[in-house]
């Protein structure tokens, strides 16, 4: 049985058409799900619904009957730490509120603080920390009680690579080894691509894709970005023609998505005006694939 099931879930903000519509998927133990989409696609709205901050206006969200609200670990995009508590007490509060004893809460706090490198800040107040350090405190409080379902909205905001990598390694271990469930949104699409085994792709509040990350990337494995370097002066007419076809022009280079143009035609037109010095290709990553799909969907 799925840990989490959404069926035709919709939610719209009052007086607007902004929100999400008819979202349906099942999430199971061991799923590490990337929730992706451009700004305004509905990522935070969905995660707020899963967190219980909002209630669906249509459809249903159900969890395994074995789980309770204490089995959730929630880190919203908007900071929710308590400014009147020091760092240690902020994190420990996350454990105490789920019913752990004082001794268990202290041990759990020390464990997650060690992972997120927060023990040196135990006696500090949150307002004396940097934005990235505050973010780590919030994430630590969400994860301190080792929840079965982890819902993290932009958990790496303000974090450098070291801490982002460490957090994703931790989540990977929890999902793949301990069979917990994580749903994570992040602008760090490279990190999501490297670590997550499933992807939920939202576009304008609609569910564009849900399934295996590998299958999603493999479906685009023949799609490449071509970059051509050249010497010489290109005419304004050719520049406009290339831009109209979706090419990106930079100093002495032109790049484009292979599947969107006639490669031989472009090479012929370039050779008529300039000298091609090199040409290379690179498989698209998650970021480029998302941009391409959104442009196709909105065309």
TrEMBL record:
KW Cell cycle (keyword) present: no
Pfam families: ABC_tran (PF00005)
Highest taxon, organism lineage: Bacteria
InterPro entries per record: AAA+_ATPase (IPR003593), ABC_transporter-like_ATP-bd (IPR003439), ABC_transporter-like_CS (IPR017871), ABC_transporter_ATP-binding (IPR050763), P-loop_NTPase (IPR027417)
GO molecular function terms noted in the UniProt entry: ATP binding; ATP hydrolysis activity
SUPFAM superfamilies (alphabetical): P-loop containing nucleoside triphosphate hydrolases
Location of the ABC transporter domain: 4-229
SMART domains to which the protein is assigned, alphabetical: AAA (SM00382)
EC number: 3.6.3.28
Enzyme class (EC, first level): hydrolase
UniProt keyword terms in alphabetical order: ATP-binding, Hydrolase, Nucleotide-binding, Transport
Assigned protein family: Belongs to the ABC transporter superfamily.
PANTHER family assigned to the protein according to its UniProt record, in alphabetical order: ABC TRANSPORTER ATP-BINDING PROTEIN (PTHR42711), ABC TRANSPORTER ATP-BINDING PROTEIN NATA (PTHR42711:SF5)
Protein name: ABC transporter, ATP-binding protein
Record lineage: Bacteria, Bacillati, Bacillota, Clostridia, Lachnospirales
């Amino acid at each position: 049985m799925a840990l989490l099931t959404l069926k035709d879930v919709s939610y719209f903000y009052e007086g607007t058409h902004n929100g999400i519509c008819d979202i349906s998927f099942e999430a199971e133990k061991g799923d590490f799900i990337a929730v992706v989409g451009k700004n305004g696609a509905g990522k935070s709205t969905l995660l707020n619904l899963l967190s219980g901050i909002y209630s669906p206006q249509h459809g249903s969200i159900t969890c395994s009957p074995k789980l309770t609200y204490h089995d959730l670990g929630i880190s919203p995009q908007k900071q929710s730490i308590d400014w009147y508590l020091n760092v240690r007490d902020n994190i420990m509060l996350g454990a105490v509120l789920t019913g752990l004893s004082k001794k268990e809460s202290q041990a759990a706090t020390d464990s997650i603080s060690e992972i997120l490198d927060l023990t040196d800040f135990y006696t500090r107040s949150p307002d004396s920390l940097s934005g990235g350090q505050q973010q780590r405190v919030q994430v630590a409080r969400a994860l301190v009680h080792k929840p079965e379902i982890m819902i993290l909205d932009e958990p790496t905001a303000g974090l450098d690579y070291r801490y982002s990598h460490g957090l994703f390694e931790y989540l990977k271990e929890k999902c793949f080894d301990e069979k917990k469930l994580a749903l994570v949104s992040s602008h760090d699409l490279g990190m999501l691509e490297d670590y997550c085994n499933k992807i939920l792709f939202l576009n304008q509040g609609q569910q564009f894709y849900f399934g295996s990350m590998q299958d999603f990337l493999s479906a685009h494995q023949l799609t490449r970005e071509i970059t051509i370097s050249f010497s010489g002066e290109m005419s304004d007419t050719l520049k406009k023609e290339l831009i109209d076809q979706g090419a990106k022009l930079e100093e002495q280079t032109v790049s484009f998505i292979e599947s969107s143009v006639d490669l031989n035609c472009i090479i012929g037109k370039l050779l008529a005006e300039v000298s091609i010095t090199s040409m290379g290709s690179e498989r698209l990553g998650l970021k480029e694939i998302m941009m391409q799909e959104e442009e196709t969907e909105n065309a």
